[in-house]
Amino acid sequence: xxxxxxxxxxxxxxxxxxxxxxxxxxxxxxxxxxxxxxxxxxxxxxxxxxxxxxxxxxxxxxxxxxxxxxxxxxxxxxxxxxxxxxxxxxxxxxxxxxxxxxxxxxxxxxxxxxxxxxxxxxxxxxxxxxxxxxxxxxxxxxxxxxxxxxxxxxxxxxxxxxxxxxxxxxxxxxxxxxxxxxxxxxxxxxxxxxxxxxxxxxxxxxxxxxxxxxxxxxxxxxxxxxxxxxxxxxxxxxxxxxxxxxxxxxxxxxxxxxxxxxxxxxxxxxxxxxxxxxxxxxxxxxxxxxxxxxxxxxxxxxxxxxxxxxxxxxxxxxxxxxxxxxxxxxxxxxxxxxxxxxxxxxxxxxxxxxxxxxxxxxxxxxxxxxxx
Length: 372
Known about the structure:
Elements: H1 8-29, E1 42-43, E2 54-55, H2 56-71, H3 77-93, E3 103-104, E4 110-112, H4 117-133, H5 139-150, H6 172-188, H7 190-207, H8 235-252, H9 255-269, E5 272-273, E6 278-279, E7 282-283, E8 289-291, E9 294-295, H10 296-309, H11 312-323, E10 337-338, E11 349-350, H12 353-371
Antiparallel strand pairs: 1-11, 2-3, 3-4, 5-6, 7-8, 9-10
Helix pairs in contact: 1-12, 2-3, 2-4, 2-12, 3-4, 4-5, 4-6, 6-7, 6-8, 8-9, 8-10, 9-10, 10-11, 10-12
């Protein structure tokens, strides 16, 4: 049975304990391949290795997790995990042009040498987190500049970047690039600020529908939103963009961005199933349910957005919804998918979810401390 938090401090304490006592130790031990040093892609909910090809995003996100744990005060012991993970990531994934390939096999052999914008965004985020945890490492800022420069040939005339794959004009890769660029603003210089501003403007003028305030996912080459089957809307991304635009709006003193964030949050709430207490995967353009299943990551984004834009009742509702995914045999792992009937899918825990979890937990604990 998932905990029924009555206060912010109770919710924050429960998640803080889970992170410190269970998740960080588990993923730093069983979650690291002893043979080649790469982070594992998945663990079973019993805490055992389930072998799978390893995506660049999983490696970079785990570096981010352990570096962020250091900065948040969970202990300097996690710095060595982050640094070793980064060194192995660079060795296994970096291409001669400075970009990082998408995927390797379990033994580190390349199996997808394309370099998606999405994967590069997380490499940049990992570098920023590692720089924050270890300010003496001055090489990371140079590496980040080089990676950003290597992305410039992906630019499109209407602003933003062209992604690989079947949806070259999309919001999602820009969202994570936006997060990464903001993370580099303090130590990386003005070019990062300019990139953040460009991406915020792209979101507010192209990605977000001016009438409904809803976030669209896929576009044509002129950044016109696709309709019908291509008109996907995801509550989780509404929450995620709301959190980012509120942060950017606060930094810039931009009221329009903060107002857009509020509308995104409100529209995201239209995708929360009150019976199961979870944000569903996808909506149609009229906000009806398109995919009633509910993955873990939208729950973390619901919590993050509620912390910065919602009241205490909304935060607690989001915290309760997320907590049910963490009720597993091995404390420190998680379930990933809840079906429309309210039953969890029996499958391994993806390492990539840890990034979502730690950011949500750190937001929650900060809000609880501020409320005391």
